[in-house]
Amino acid sequence: MSNALRVAKGPFGRVALLDMDRPLVRHAHPHCHVLLKVEGADTQFSVRDRIVPLRDDSAVLINAWEPHAYAHYPGQPATIILALYIEPTWLQSFRPNWRASGGPDFFADSVGGTTPKITRLTRELAEAMVQEPGNAATHELLLADLMIAVIERFTPWQEMLPSLRLRALGSGVDPRIRRAVDLIRLSPGEVTDMDSLARDAGLSRAHFFRLFETTLNVSPRVYLNVVRLEQAVLSIVDGKESFHCISERLGFSAPAHFSRFFHDHAGSTPTAFRAASGLTSRNFETPR
C-alpha cells in the first residue's frame, strides 16, 4: 500500500517522501509541483492527457493547478518518490520573478532530463529526511539548493514575468465565479452538489463549468478537491483534530470515505501521513 515515509512542512510548502505502489486519481495542487525518483522501479505520471516518465534521469514538472495523476500499472514494483509542493512566495525570496511559479506556464514541458547535481541533491534531501527527521534547517537548505537547480535547469527563469492569470484573479475575475470560489474556500464541507453551486453563482450548469474552467484552469470539482486536500493536510500535520472531525468538517459522510479520498489524492493514509510529519512539522510552528 502506498504511504508517506516522511513529510516536512514549512514556509516553503511541503515535501513528501512517498513509497508508491498504487495509482492516484486525477487531481491538482496550488503549488509549483516537482516529482523526483529516489529509488525503485521507473514509473510514470499522466499530466493533462500525456504520459510522462519518472526515471533516475528525468523529473516530472507540474505547474500550479495543472491536472495530473500517478499512472501506476498493475503488477509494477513500488517507487520511492520525492514530491515537492513549493510555495511561490518562498521561491520569490531567491529571485523576485520566481513568484511566477504560481502561474500556469512556469514549466514549459512536463518532463525533463535531470543533471547529476539534481540527482545528488534529491538523494541527499531524501536521506536527511529519513536519517535526521527533526533537522528542519538542513532540510530547508537542501530543498533550496534542489529547487534552484531545478528552476535553472527547466525554466527560462531570467525571462519570467508575473502570471497574467494570477493578476487577473486579483481583480478581474467574474464576480459569479469569485462567489463560487469564496464558497468553496470558506466552507468546502458544505459544497456537495455542483448544480447547487452553479445556481448559487447565478449561472446555468454548462455556463458555470465553462466559465470556471476558463478562469481557473480546472473544473469546479477538481478545485473543490484541491481545497479539501490542502485543508486536510494542514489539519493532519497540525495533529490537534481527530480524523473523524476533519472528515465531518470537510463534508465526507464517513471517516472511511475521507481516508479513501486522502489516500487517492495524497498517496498515503491519513494515519501514515500524520506519523510521517510528526517529527518535522513541529519545527515550523509559529511560537505562541
From TrEMBL:
<keyword id="KW-0805">Transcription regulation</keyword>
<dbReference type="Pfam" id="PF12833">
    <property type="entry name" value="HTH_18"/>
</dbReference>
<keyword id="KW-0238">DNA-binding</keyword>
<dbReference type="InterPro" id="IPR009057">
    <property type="entry name" value="Homeodomain-like_sf"/>
</dbReference>
<dbReference type="InterPro" id="IPR050204">
    <property type="entry name" value="AraC_XylS_family_regulators"/>
</dbReference>
<dbReference type="GO" id="GO:0003700">
    <property type="term" value="F:DNA-binding transcription factor activity"/>
</dbReference>
<dbReference type="Pfam" id="PF02311">
    <property type="entry name" value="AraC_binding"/>
</dbReference>
<dbReference type="InterPro" id="IPR018060">
    <property type="entry name" value="HTH_AraC"/>
</dbReference>
<protein>
    <submittedName>
        <fullName>AraC-like DNA-binding protein</fullName>
    </submittedName>
</protein>
<keyword id="KW-0804">Transcription</keyword>
<dbReference type="InterPro" id="IPR037923">
    <property type="entry name" value="HTH-like"/>
</dbReference>
<feature type="domain" description="HTH araC/xylS-type">
    <location>
        <begin position="178"/>
        <end position="276"/>
    </location>
</feature>
<dbReference type="GO" id="GO:0043565">
    <property type="term" value="F:sequence-specific DNA binding"/>
</dbReference>
<dbReference type="InterPro" id="IPR003313">
    <property type="entry name" value="AraC-bd"/>
</dbReference>
